[in-house]
Amino acid sequence: MTGEFILETRDLTKEFKGFTAVDRVNLKVRRGSIHALIGPNGAGKTTVFNLLTKFLAPTSGGILYKGQDITAEAPGHVAQKGIIRSFQISAVFPNLTVLENVRVALQRKLGTSFHFWQSEKTLDQLNSRAMELLEQVDLTQFAALTAGELPYGRKRALEIATTLAMDPELMLLDEPTQGMGHEDVGRVVELIRKVAANRTVLMVEHNMSVVANLSSTITVLQRGAVLAEGPYETVSKDPRVLEAYVGSEDAHG
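The chain above was modelled as a monomer; its predicted structure follows.
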């Protein structure tokens, strides 16, 4: 049923010079859900994200978004259709203020990035929308700070705000809590829950408590292939999943 799944991959495969990084992956991301993609290092998670956002072309297989085949689409077209990857477009500008960062993302959405002669009124409209987005991610009080001055966890919140500015229908979050302390992780988890209320989220995440807390469905990759899929309770008890994680820990010392 097309309507139930916003994103599907069919035998998605990517080979690099004889090495299979993604091996016949069949993903089905349910509309309105938070779906996690997990797996040990080198499992192919980032490659899957790069294939979905068209930064890489698949060797074989297909990608369907809202029932349409987007396998051959250019990255810009995919973004226009509503698939936005956090940290792909944001890469926060450290010398701009927090407000200006969100405004740049809003201008990209409007297609007025280079219209510097636009009237001030256009920017005023963008300012009020930018402040709404900052409020959503609890950054209003930092609006006038330059982004470079923000603490690490707040930078991640700003990246999520700039992603939201692009009005995504499907939001791809790549390691949203990586490198964060406990307090920041808690804040970002609540933020993801909030922004996922009226959209679909697919995330790559290493932190298992974050995955357990947020995701309705988890797909586990190992060596580029799907090892297991289901809710956290099921996946976390799967002996193959436990073996994959323990085995990879041993392998990496």
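The chain has a mean pLDDT of 89.
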